[in-house]
Every structure is written in structure tokens, then in C-alpha cells.
Design goal:
- The structure holds two protein chains of two kinds.
- By secondary structure, chain A is an alpha+beta fold.
- Chain A has 18 helices and 13 strands.
- In chain A, helix 3 crosses helix 6, helix 6 packs antiparallel against helix 7 and helix 11 packs antiparallel against helix 18.
- By secondary structure, chain B is an alpha+beta fold.
- The chains are: A alpha+beta, B alpha+beta.
């Protein structure tokens, strides 16, 4: 799919600025391999105890964790202009192949980078993300930068203000490079018949950086692909049924769907409200778990508009004692077709936590999962998907994704049946809470298989239990994915780590441990 | 009433009578005003009573005995306490006194008696929630809030009346087919409002220092107002609803919260914090820090007030009570502004449409679940064959949530709202008030903490008037601080002449 001239213009706006900096870039690159960076890496905590220390071994800024990059920037080992230049150059190199970044704002990014460098020169640190480049999923509003949410009615929509999450990150010093691809409203499941990945009518299909013939998963597929490929330090996705965790798995990075009620959805194309409100969360996606630890405290807490957000204090992952954790694991849910390598990875991760002193038990709550999934599938369709119709009306979209149109009216029930399903969903949540009393964590596959081919035909129908993700949207539990293995095809495999409500930091502490043993993210051959 | 029931209600009475000590003589002489530190068991706050028990000035057995004697004196007139557990209460009181004698404290409510709304399950004590199907139902476990109060040393005296499923009161306030009608202790020709009407009536009448009610549309606040006591509906998610009937979850989940009713604000602060927090049973109950109301700086508070919710205009005496409250705050807060969010008219229409959307199928499920074949008229009136489609229903839910979001934005400019609790004092049985007379249900929609304290009197009827104090989400401490200021200026609770 080709983009319009105007769109191309917008997408490359500021490129001139970037090319004038290209020579500097080469200098920086050369210097990156010099002792300057090596010295900085050797002293990651030089910036002071107020900042998280990095354990990231990466030495190239475009593959570095945000935590490490922020440390380098604060220590003036690298300027923000250099960091942005390098990130943009990486996007220019990989994006023609993967189509992950669909809108850019380079001029503004460079202006902000210069301002960040100037501020630092006069001793002012804007925040823990001072000068760090990021991208943001296109379903999340960014002030002054086109945010389509994959729907044609918003093809030229420029939001007047940032989403709450974006404004918090920018206030912490992060610099927006551009927007990453998503299916229509994040809910169109590919949007194009036969494609179960991140694609939409406006920007086309996003490709997996580990194998361009494979899916990125969705809906934060653009985010997953570009973060894996390098460039931005991190992205923010949304997760209603696996949309952060699926792309984290397929693209071999780390991502968390926090506890329901943690990060305001204000400024997301599907924001607070409606009968499925409790399924939706925003969450950070990054190459390294340490960045999720860095980003979560910056993102949490109520705003003026999202009524579901609780001011629960965010826990400190450094205080988590793995030896005290009770872990349930299941290598397969017995429903989804799950590869032997995936199951083996789950067992290995369980053993690694046991070796760390955790009490580990194989325990599959099969009845709970089956009940939850059957309710979930009926409930999401119980109003005949009328919420998708209302989204189309709200944004003036006439050309709605074919996958969405195909759903209209399907599965509609009476209001009495819908309300009863709602009650059953919430009763099932109570049963889960009771089951979880015995555990702090659940280890299971993120998905049964690694990234699947894009041209796999219409694909297998989406059925209860075929995905591992949705159960933790319904329960609202914090659920993260980190790469912990490799498939026989050489594709990333993610482990899913899920915890108790409001114990996101415990989940991430376990993820960090598993990442330290598996190596986590690996550079794709791009 | 069955003979078994009357047996249960008076079980242990003989035991109690043997404990009727000299102290009762003093406690019967009810104070006309409320001294700051009353020595009267029937008037003092739970905080004062707990301190007196800790200091061994009053034994728990004495307190339990005095309160049962008071219940015996007033309950035939008001029918507030509908089930008692005297033997167990006295045994627990003896144990509490024994523990204290050997230097052990069970908690901040050591030996303090309390009652519980009958919609909350109490282990070993019949809990009907006003529905015939549960007429003889004895729960195996305490509701989370009951378990927490008992773990803190509280002693359950009995259960207080509620309409069927807390929702079937209608014009009668608190009435059901199991236990009948509850009356207002200030004027027996008037209702105590509902649905925690039994709780409001007995706490006001001095038969229990505090009770725990539930509030789906005003069910804690309206009885607190009508019976001249204090009450709070805490923030949605502050208190677990586990063990309440009807249960939590489903389309109306966000409206329902549990909270204490007591004579004094200091008791609300103590009990609300005690019962707060997660419990592995209610997914919405979370551990959010709870502030100390005594540490709130009133000088920083921006107060909004309104006198009319544009549905039903309040009586002149109700407005006087609001003005008296504002006067109490004058000079102590940052600002006082007349401002109304305009939420009530939209919510009144939307909320009713939502509750009727399935033709009352959810009400029928409740009846079926609890084996009730004959519903009270107030509950059955919500079952009618008008329904709307699921697409229309889910669109209404989105509209409801858009209103919640709009109201949250509105509240950014203020810290506190002061307004009437109801447009009228407790209505008489002869002359019901309009259903929209409550100024309460908008704050079930928003989930914000909303407290009530007495700030005036309807002179002709001799009825109390309570003012409503709303704070931003999770700031119960702010609501209590403002309510305590109003309480100290206006006097708050005044014992009824009953």
C-alpha cells in the first residue's frame, strides 16, 4: 500500500534537518564505539541514586534501553540531538521493510532535542526521560501529530492535546519521534481478510523484523516491530485482548498490560467507558524489562477524565524477594495448539524461578479459563458489536475495515442476556481471586506459536481458549511478556508472567530475572 | 412472626437481664444536648466507648447489657433490630473483659457492641436481606466488613432491618415481608428512609453505637439524614462488598458501596478505615492509602455548594441546614463558591432507563437465586415487561460513563461539595415524597465519598436534617474533616425523645 504525497511529506517532514545532522551522526557512531561510551557503560549509576541503574549490555544508542540511554544523556556522553538523529536514521533504514512507523514529527523532535540539550547545559534535567526518543501507537492522541487510530475518518486528524500517558512521558523529558501502526480502533484484528496482524486501510500492513513474511501480531504491532528493530527506546501500546503482549511476543521484546485501573486511557481512541471498560489498559513496550520499571511509575495514577483509575501506590521492584514468591505454571492451557518448544520454555522459566528459591507448582485452572473464555466471547459480541458501529459514527468513518463490517450484528443477544453475562463475568473474576490466593505469579505461554506467516490464508477462527491473553484482560491482572526463547524457525518466543492485582512490580521483578537468564531481546537481522 | 423467630429474637434475654446493672439507671436519663465527652453508654461515640472500655471504666458486659436493655425499650416502637444474638454477644463480652483483665487488647474496638444491616451476612446469625426466601438463612461466614469489625474486637448485637434486597423500600422507606416496617425514632409517623433504615433508627435511638450499611442510591446517607446521625458512602473500591446480598458485580457494580452509620464523625473515620482494603473476594476493593482527617488542612479546601439539584427544590429548613454548614466553614476554608455540576437531571433519566433496560430480569434472577416466590410490592414494581435492545443498552452505558467523566472534570476545580442530603426531612407514611427527592444517587454514579452529618431540624415534625459533604475520590479524610467542623458548630446528633 502506498501513501499519499501529503502523507509522504508529513512522514518525511524534518528529514532535511536530519540529513544535515548526518555527518554528526557518523561522528557519533564512531564515537559510540570509542572508550567514551564504554566508560559511561562501566559507570551506569554515575548519574546518581535517584535514577534506575541499567544492566543493559547494548552499546549502540539505537538498541540501548531507555534507562541506559537516559543515563548517557544526563552524563552528557551523548546529546539528545545525537540520540534523535541516530533513532531517525535507524527508522529510515528499517521502516521501508517493516512499515511500523506511520507518521513522524522530525522537526519538532529535533527542536525538542536541541532544547533538551540546552536545558542540560544549564544544569536543568527535565525528568528521568530527559532527551530520550520514543514512538507512540497511533491510537493514542499526540498533540500536533496526526493520530488516525487506523480509521479513515481520522485520516488527517490532528489532536489538540496529548493523551494523558503521552503528556506524562513528555513532561518527564521524552521526545516523540512519530506514531506506530495499529488496526482500526485497535480492534479490527488485522482489518484485511486473511491477515491476522497489524494492518489498516490507511497505512497498510506492518511486517515482523525477524521475518518479513511473518505477522507482528496486533494491535500494537507497529510498536512491537520498531522497538524490536531499534530506533525509539520505547513505545506505549494498549491491550484489550493481548494488544501489548501479542506484539511483545511476536517481536521478541518486553511489554506489560498493567493492572486494570493503573494508567488513564484518556486520549486513546477507545477511552474510559462502556460495558467492556475493564478490559482495556495502556502499557509500555521496550527492549528491556528495566525500561518497563522506569516507565511504569511515570505513567500511573488518576487524571481528570478516566474514572476507573485508582491511586494505588506503585510498588518498588527492587524490594521483591523471589524466594518468597509462590508461582503456578502451566506449559499449555490444553485448548490452544501450543508448540513443544513453547512448552519447554515455560518449564525452563518455572525451573529458573524455582532455582531462585520461589515455590513453584504446576497448576492449570482449566475450569476457570474455560468458563472465562466462553463468557468473554459471548460478552464481546453480545451487543452485536454495536460499539464498533458507534466508533465509526463518532469518527465519521464510512470505509470501515472489512473484518469489522463482517462482525456487525453477529452474536447479538437480548439486554437481559447481556446483563446476565456481565454478572457471570464478574462472578468468574471472584473465583479467580480465590484461586490466586495461593499464588503470587502465573507463568504460561504468551502464545501457542511464534509469529505466523502473513499469507496463511484466512487463518484459524478465533475461539475461546485459542489465545492466552484475554483471560488477564477479563481478570484485570497485571500481565507481562518477555522474550525467553527461540523457535526452531529462529523466531522469538515470549513467556507470559502474570500477577495479583496491583502487583505489577512483582511481575516485572520476575520478568527481569528470567530476562537476565535468557538474554531477552536479540537484535533482528535487519 | 413465627414463634421460632420470636424465640430467636429474645434468646439470651434472661442472661442479659441478669447483667442489668446500676449503670442502666444513669444511661436511661438521656441527655438533652450531647456533651463532648458523655459518660452515657447510650449516647457516647464508639471511640469514647472503646476508650472507656480500654480504661476499664466500663466493662464490655456492662456495655452489651445496657444496649440490649435500650433495644428492649425502644425496639417495640421502631422495629429496627430484627434479629439478635444475645448469648453469643454476652459470651464475647465476657471474653473481651477477661482478655483485658489479662492485659490483652483485641483491637481498636475491643469489647464495643455494634449492629449490622440485615443485607450483610453474619456467621451463625439469620441474615434475610428482607426476602422471604432467606427467612431462616444462617450464613456460614461473616461478610468481610463484619469479619474485620469483629477481628478488631467489635461484638455483634444483632441485625437491622432493610427492604427486600435493599431495593424494595419505596415510599415506606424500610419495609419488607419478613420483618415488617421500621419507624423513625424522632417521629413514629415518619419513615427512617432506607434502605439502611433499621441501622439509622437504632443508632439514633441509642441502641447501638454504630452499624454498617450499604448504599446503592443513598441507602446509607438518606437514613443518616432522616435519623439525625452520621454516615458515609466511601469511595467506590474502598470497602469490599463481599458478603452483601445482593452481591457485587454486573451492570450496576459501580453504584454499590458499604460504609458505617454512627452518631459521631470520629466513629465513621475509625470504622471506615478498619473495614477498608482488598480481600481476595471483591475485585474492586484495593489498598489505597487512607488519610487521617485530623491532619487535613481546611485552609486549603475549595468548597462548592448548591441548594437545588434542579429536580426537587428543598424545604426552607433544609436550606437553612446547608447555610448553617457553610457558616461553620466560613473563614476556615480557602473558598466557598455556589456551583452545581448539573449532573442530577441527566442522571435521573439515564439511571432509571438503565435499571429498567432488561425488564427487571436481574431482579427476577435475585428472587430465583434466593428462593423467593413472593416479592414485596416495592421490589416487584421494578419488574415490568419493557425492554430495550442490547445495542441501545450498551450505548446508554457509554452515555452514563461519559457523564461520570464529565463530572470528574467538573470536580477538578473544587475539593469539597456541600449540598442537601434529601430535599425533605423524613417523609410521613401519609405523605410520601417524590422519588427524585434524594440528592444522593449522583454520587453513587461518580463513586465519590459522600458523608452526612446533622446540621438542622424540621421544627414542626421534630425531625433532623442532615447535610451532605462530598470529597474527591479516595479523600474520605477531607469529607470527615469538613463534616467534623460542621458537627462541632451545629452540635450534630441530638438524642430522640423516644
Amino acid at each position: 500500500m502506498t501513501s499519499s504525497p501529503r502523507r509522504r511529506f508529513l512522514r518525511t517532514a524534518g528529514l532535511a534537518t536530519s540529513s544535515t545532522l548526518f555527518s554528526q551522526l557518523l561522528v557519533s557512531r564512531a564515537m559510540a564505539e570509542s572508550s567514551r561510551l564504554a566508560a559511561a557503560s562501566a559507570a551506569p549509576s554515575a548519574s546518581g541514586p535517584a535514577y534506575l541503574a541499567s544492566t543493559d549490555p547494548a552499546e549502540d544508542p539505537v538498541f540501548m534501553s531507555a534507562t541506559k540511554l537516559a543515563g548517557l544523556l544526563r552524563a552528557k556522553k551523548l546529546s539528545s540531538v545525537e540520540a534523535v538523529t541516530l533513532a531517525c536514521a535507524r527508522i529510515d533504514a528499517v521502516n521501508p521493510k517493516i512499515n511500523a512507523v506511520v507518521m513522524e514529527c522530525r522537526e519538532r523532535a529535533f527542536a525538542e532535542a536541541r532544547a533538551a540539550d540546552a536545558a542540560l547545559a544549564s544544569g536543568k534535567v527535565l525528568g528521568p526521560l530527559h532527551g530520550v526518543p520514543m514512538t507512540i501507537k497511533d491510537s493514542i492522541d499526540t498533540e500536533g501529530v496526526i493520530s488516525t487510530g487506523g480509521t479513515v475518518g481520522r485520516i488527517n486528524y490532528i489532536p489538540p492535546r496529548d493523551a494523558t500517558a503521552v503528556s506524562r512521558l513528555r513532561a518527564a523529558g521524552a521526545i516523540l519521534l512519530g506514531k506506530t501502526n495499529t488496526p482500526e480502533w485497535t480492534l479490527a484484528g488485522g482489518g484485511i481478510p486473511g491477515i491476522t496482524t497489524t494492518a489498516n486501510i490507511i497505512y497498510g500492513t506492518t511486517k515482523n523484523p525477524y521475518d518479513l513474511t511473518r505477522s507482528t501480531a496486533g494491535s500494537s504491532g507497529g510498536a512491537g516491530a520498531i522497538v524490536a528493530a531499534g530506533g525509539p527506546a520505547f513505545d506505549i501500546g494498549t491491550d484489550w485482548g493481548g494488544s501489548v503482549r501479542g506484539p511483545a511476543h511476536n517481536n521478541g521484546i518486553a511489554g506489560i498490560k498493567p493492572t486494570y485501573g493503573t494508567i488513564p486511557r484518556t486520549g486513546h481512541i477507545v477511552d474510559f467507558g462502556g460495558y467492556l471498560d475493564s478490559w482495556q489498559e495502556l502499557g509500555p513496550m521496550a527492549r528491556r524489562v528495566e525500561d518497563l520499571n522506569l516507565l511504569m511509575p511515570l505513567l500511573v495514577g488518576p487524571d481528570e477524565s478516566d474514572c476507573s483509575i485508582y491511586p494505588v501506590p506503585y510498588g518498588n521492584p527492587a524490594t521483591v524477594d523471589l524466594k518468597k514468591l509462590r508461582v503456578a505454571f502451566f506449559p499449555t492451557n490444553g485448548i490452544a495448539d501450543t508448540t513443544p518448544e513453547t512448552q519447554e520454555m515455560v518449564r525452563r522459566c518455572a525451573k529458573q524461578l524455582a532455582d531462585a528459591g520461589a515455590r513453584v507448582t504446576e497448576d492449570l485452572p482449566r475450569d476457570l479459563i474455560t468458563e472465562l473464555e466462553e463468557i468473554r466471547f459471548k460478552l464481546m459480541a453480545a451487543c452485536g458489536w454495536s460499539y464498533l458501529k458507534r466508533l465509526a459514527e463518532k469518527w465519521g468513518t464510512k470505509s470501515v475495515s472489512p473484518t469489522v463490517v463482517a462482525r456487525y450484528g453477529q452474536g447479538e443477544k437480548t439486554t437481559a442476556e447481556l446483563i446476565e453475562l456481565w454478572e457471570k463475568q464478574d462472578a468468574n473474576k471472584v473465583r479467580w481471586l480465590q484461586w490466586m490466593k495461593d499464588y503470587d505469579l502465573i507463568l504460561c505461554p504468551a502464545a501457542g506459536k511464534p509469529a505466523q506467516p502473513l499469507d496463511a490464508g484466512p487463518g484459524t477462527p478465533w475461539t475461546p481458549g485459542s489465545s492466552y491473553y484475554g483471560m488477564f484482560n477479563t481478570t484485570g491482572y497485571p500481565s507481562a511478556v518477555v522474550r525467553a526463547g527461540t523457535s526452531p524457525e529462529g523466531l522469538p518466543l515470549g513467556i507470559m508472567v502474570t500477577g495479583k492485582l496491583w502487583k505489577d512490580h512483582v511481575v516485572l521483578a520476575a520478568c527481569a530475572h528470567l530476562e537476565s537468564l535468557s538474554g531477552g531481546w536479540q537484535k533482528p537481522p535487519l | 412472626m413465627s414463634s421460632r423467630r420470636s424465640f430467636l429474637r429474645t434468646a439470651g434475654y434472661a442472661t442479659a437481664a441478669t447483667f442489668a446493672l446500676g449503670r442502666l439507671a444513669t444511661s436511661r436519663a438521656l441527655a438533652q444536648s450531647t456533651p463532648a465527652a458523655s459518660t452515657d453508654i447510650l449516647v457516647m461515640s464508639a471511640v469514647q466507648l472503646a476508650a472507656a472500655i480500654r480504661a476499664k471504666k466500663i466493662s464490655s458486659v456492662e456495655a452489651v447489657t445496657a444496649l440490649y436493655a435500650r433495644i428492649d425499650a425502644v425496639n417495640p416502637k421502631i422495629n429496627a433490630v430484627v434479629m439478635q444474638c444475645r448469648e453469643r454477644a454476652l459470651a464475647e463480652a465476657e471474653a473481651a473483659d477477661g482478655a483485658l483483665a489479662s492485659g490483652r487488647s483485641l483491637g481498636p474496638l475491643h469489647g464495643v457492641p455494634f449492629t449490622i444491616k440485615d443485607s450483610l451476612e453474619t456467621a451463625g446469625v439469620v441474615s434475610t436481606t428482607g426476602t422471604l426466601g432467606r427467612k431462616n438463612f444462617i450464613p456460614g461466614a461473616d461478610a468481610t466488613v463484619v469479619a474485620r469489625v469483629r477481628a478488631a474486637g467489635g461484638i455483634l448485637l444483632g441485625k437491622t432491618n432493610t427492604p427486600e434486597f435493599t431495593l424494595g423500600g419505596g415510599d415506606l422507606g424500610t419495609y419488607n415481608l419478613v420483618h415488617g416496617q421500621t419507624y423513625n425514632p424522632y417521629n413514629l409517623a415518619h419513615t427512617p428512609r432506607g434502605s439502611s433504615g433499621g441501622a439509622g433508627a437504632i443508632v439514633a435511638a441509642g441502641g447501638s453505637p454504630f452499624d454498617i450499611g450499604s448504599d446503592f442510591g443513598g441507602s446509607i446517607r438518606s437514613p443518616a439524614h432522616a435519623c439525625g446521625i452520621t454516615g458515609i458512602k466511601p469511595t467506590l473500591g474502598r470497602v469490599s462488598r463481599a458478603g452483601h446480598v445482593p452481591g457485587y458485580g454486573g451492570a450496576w457494580d459501580v453504584y454499590q458501596e458499604l460504609g458505617p452509620l454512627a452518631r459521631r464523625i470520629e466513629d465513621l473515620a475509625l470504622v471506615t478505615e478498619l473495614i477498608s482494603g482488598s480481600d481476595d473476594l471483591d475485585p474492586l476493593a484495593a489498598d489505597v492509602p487512607f488519610g487521617d482527617y485530623r491532619a487535613v488542612d481546611l485552609k486549603k479546601l475549595r468548597v462548592a455548594y448548591y441548594l437545588d439539584n434542579k429536580l426537587v427544590a428543598p424545604t426552607p429548613e433544609t436550606l437553612e441546614a446547608v447555610r448553617a454548614s457553610l457558616k461553620a466553614l466560613e473563614g476556615s476554608v480557602a473558598s466557598v463558591t455556589e456551583a452545581f455540576h448539573d449532573g442530577d437531571p441527566e442522571w435521573y433519566e439515564l439511571g432509571a432507563k438503565l435499571l429498567r433496560a432488561d425488564g427487571g430480569a436481574w431482579r427476577q434472577r435475585l428472587l430465583a437465586k434466593h428462593g423467593t416466590t413472593q416479592a414485596s410490592p416495592g421490589f416487584a414494581s421494578g419488574i415490568r415487561p419493557e425492554t430495550i435492545s442490547a445495542p441501545a443498552f450498551t450505548e446508554l452505558v457509554e452515555k452514563r460513563d461519559a457523564l461520570r467523566s464529565r463530572l470528574l472534570k467538573w470536580f477538578q476545580a473544587y475539593d469539597v461539595i456541600i449540598c442537601p442530603t434529601n430535599a425533605f426531612p423524613a417523609p410521613s407514611f401519609a405523605k410520601p415524597v417524590p422519588a427524585a427527592a434524594g440528592y444522593t444517587s449522583i454520587y453513587n454514579l461518580t463513586g465519590w465519598p459522600a458523608a452526612v452529618v446533622r446540621a438542622g431540624t424540621a421544627k414542626a415534625e421534630g425531625l433532623p436534617i442532615g447535610v451532605q459533604i462530598i470529597a474527591r475520590p479516595w479523600r474520605e479524610d477531607v469529607a470527615f474533616a469538613v463534616a467534623a467542623k460542621i458537627e462541632s458548630a451545629t452540635g450534630g446528633y441530638v438524642p430522640p425523645a423516644i
